[in-house]
Amino acid sequence: MPGFKGFSAFRDSVKTSGKTWTTSFRKVVSNATVAGVWCDLSYSPGNPPANFYATEPLVSATLSSTKGIDNGGPVSPDKKFFKRLVVYSASTAFQSSHLMLCDYVLYYPFIDGDSTEPQELTNSVALPRYTDGKGVRAILVSQGSYVGGAQVSITYTNQDGTAGRVSPLFTTNTSTFAATLLTGGTAAENAGPFIPLQGSDYGIRSVESVTFSSANGGICALVLVKPIVEIPIVEVTATFATPSEQANMYNEFNGNQIEDGAYLNFLCLPNGSLSAGVLQGFLTTVWG
């Protein structure tokens, strides 16, 4: 199987074969956010363009890799890995925020937050990447304003192909803003960015239904993501942006593979409202 056997193979791919790619990104946050509540920066315009999960309700769909952060295109039979990520912002709202670069693998849009009946999802498209579901997690992204404070669970098929798994109940936050992750919040019962899984499960192949125990308000998309790398923004002032950098050495590559067709974008844990804030940076990938 292609990949890196050691540092010399990594060096040859970069220096000799030119199998590396660097791209820039610039996102202008279009929605208000709340400190301590995760949000989805794919919803904001810039480079790459905004993504609104606007396809057939309750039916699985995928995002085009060309609409996300450019990772260098398909390289099969080689394997591609994250090499270097630099992020910075002169917007003080990004001070002490935390970013998670993810591959957005599959989504189910326009789930009704006011319905308390189980909402059956149609899996017309299966996972196109990470097909065994290992390490794939679910987020619930608001597609408009909402009230919150409702308990939610999902029924899913886990990484072993076992259907009928049911997540523990989690309580949605009350931040009310579009692009907020309903799972994330500051109250004790909030679950963080990802929907919790049953027992010792550690991945999802598909989701079969979503159930709200009471009216949450609004609409939302259930999105299956594969985390790639995390990075904080440590220091920001109104006039100067201090870059944060995360680099990957060859012996760590197996945990940071980027598969062909990946749609890359950021989840963010902000320290306040990011509205009109600008996030910029560079991503470098390498393959061999």
In short:
The protein contains 1 helix and 15 strands. The chain has 288 residues and is mainly beta.
Question: Can you give a write-up of this model?
Answer:
- The chain has 288 residues and is mainly beta.
- It has one domain.
- Helix content is 3%, strand content 35%.
- It is built from 1 helix and 15 strands.
- Strands 3-1-15-4-13 form a 5-stranded antiparallel β-sheet. Strands 2-14-5-12-7 form a 5-stranded antiparallel β-sheet, with no helix packed on it.
- It is globular.
- The model has no long low-confidence stretch (mean pLDDT 91).
**Residue share in helix:** under 10%
Strand order of the largest sheet: 3-1-15-4-13
In N-to-C order, the SSE pattern is HEEEEEEEEEEEEEEE
Largest sheet: 5 strands, antiparallel
Number of helices: 1
SS-derived structural category: mainly beta
Rough outline = globular
Alpha-carbon Rg, integer: 19 Å
Poorly predicted runs of 5 or more residues: none
Q: N- to C-terminal separation?
A: 10 Å
Detail the topology: elements first, then pairings.
Blueprint: H1 7-16, E1 20-28, E2 39-40, E3 46-47, E4 80-88, E5 98-112, E6 119-120, E7 137-142, E8 151-158, E9 165-166, E10 170-171, E11 204-212, E12 219-232, E13 244-247, E14 264-269, E15 278-287
Antiparallel strand pairs: 1-3, 1-15, 2-14, 4-13, 4-15, 5-12, 5-14, 6-11, 7-12, 8-9, 8-10, 8-11
Keywords:
5-stranded antiparallel sheet, single chain, 3% helix, 15 strands, 288 residues, mainly beta
